[in-house]
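writing this on my phone so excuse typos. first protein, seq and then structure
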Amino acid sequence: MRRKHVMEMIAGYTFMMPFIVSISVFLLGPLIFAFIISFKNFSFLNPEAATWVGFKNYVQLFRDPVFRRALLNTALYSSIVTPVQLAIALILAVILDQKIKGRTFFRLAYYIPTVTSPVAVAVIFLYLFKADGLVNTILAKFGIQGPVWFNSVRFALPSIMMMAIWSSVGTYMVVFLAGLQDIPAELYEAAEVDGASGIQRFFYITLPVLRPVVFFNLIISLIGTFQVFDQAYVVSRGEGGPLNATMTVVLFIYRQGFREFNMGYASAAAFVLFIIILILTLIQRKIFREETS
């Protein structure tokens, strides 16, 4: 019996081995290595010349005006994009959960942008928002002089926000739809018998039941917005301009690691970003737990 138990364990670990090896080689190994070199002056062009600098990279980060601007841009981007896209996604999900004509078409239409390449979306928006693009042409019909959106310090980041909301709202809509379809119809029927209006049913039934789904979408959206890179890279051609108006933390990490070849400094910035996302996630988890308890 004991031998059979040992053989079952060996068989189990054998089946798990490909996963364990892949995680160790492609995730845990690089993660540990990146953490170590974040305390070094390290470049892949000359790794032998790496020197230990302790917390110097981390201290320098918060003295670096470009990193501070990237952190501010990313925080502003996340604080606007996350609530707006979740609100729109929830409204669309509630509408498309009703028995309306053509709802399958609309579900597909809203979801298609999410499976489109972010680079392709960015290129499309570059044409839409250029000086003589479609957006400015429409504004001109109403006598409004449109800006050069992506070349403007004031409008470059908001333009990327609009792009991100349009291209990702479908993902969260689908998750909300799945949550809505799990709500028992009896709850709505009982509320309707009691004379509850549609708005009351939404706030007293739909939102409370959807709380775990809202939390899930909120965390996924928060992580995604703090990791924004593709759109900012394409729009600014990897420069984060104009005047660092579209510089994000991940774009900053990319530039430091693969353009300046200062991989130790880039690794330190990556771990600062990780800590920020972790803290925000834990705070939101605590808030949601307190509200549901």
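second protein below, same order as before
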Amino acid sequence: MLIYIILLLVLVVNCCFENNKKLFNFSIFILFIVAALRSDDVDRDYKTYISIYEYLINGDSYTIEPTFILLTYISHVITGSYFFIFVIYAALALHYKSKYIRYFSPYICLSLLIYYSNFYFVHELTQIRIGVASAIGFYSLKYIIDGRKNKFIAFVLVATLFHFSMIILLVSLMFDTKRISNKFIFSSFLLIIISYSIIILNFNPLEILRYIPISVLQEKLTIYKYQTANGMVEAVNVFSALQVIHIGVLIVVFCNANKFDDNPSMVLLCKLYSLSPISLALLSSLPAFAIRISELFSVADIIVLPILALYCKQRKIARFAVVLLAVLVFFMNLYHNEIVKGYSI
């Protein structure tokens, strides 16, 4: 675990030299090397990807995104192994995550710290497909801000080639980027209340999805139901520390909503951010599905917290508080959630 802690300390120190692009780019490169060269026993999914690689190379069929199939054959031709798959996924994920941060964040080193503490282990060291997909998808939000919605749609469709779930990011087109209205605030809190009420009443709203005739959706639902029924995934803790933090941040954002009227990036990202705690509670009857969707929307976290710090009168204190929060989440993910094991090459 030592290498993870050393990386954390480096990123914390970087925050003392905020917006230093050289430090930022160097840190991105180091994170790429760590992700690309890890051994197969660092995370939970590496060996699964190796198995999928072997299925495909042996001519067996396997339902997975076309980009993974393409990279499997490219890696096999170039290296005769699966190694190139992990290099390309790490390169694409870190490239687009860095572009996402540089475009939206007022404090790029602070955003990088938040990303590392709460997303790097899940996305770049474990769920590499959603890692690339979310990076491309959230970077493409810039095209909504710039008024180029067709380009945004094109990027999201590319992102879905890395992970099908990214199609849900098209919900961004429904949001007004001018302001966070009282109607939106009321609707968000109402949905949170309804979601927790559904949990108490033991009602499963996902049964409605059975009637949507989309084969990929039905296949995923079948898998998630099987995993849930057979105890292959743990039940969602809708009162977890992260969920409480998300709802707490949401309350702070909504209480200061009028301050962000001149910041379309913050408005759009906050609206997406609000869907994270809602989806976790609303979809909790299928844990794997709920966690995946909630984690997807929570990528907005990387930008929302630094922008909140920017709007605080005591900016240095606010940034310090965000650093402490990131460090807390880091140790929680590493030692409580045990997302990854000790690092090795």
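The chain has a mean pLDDT of 90. thats all i got for now
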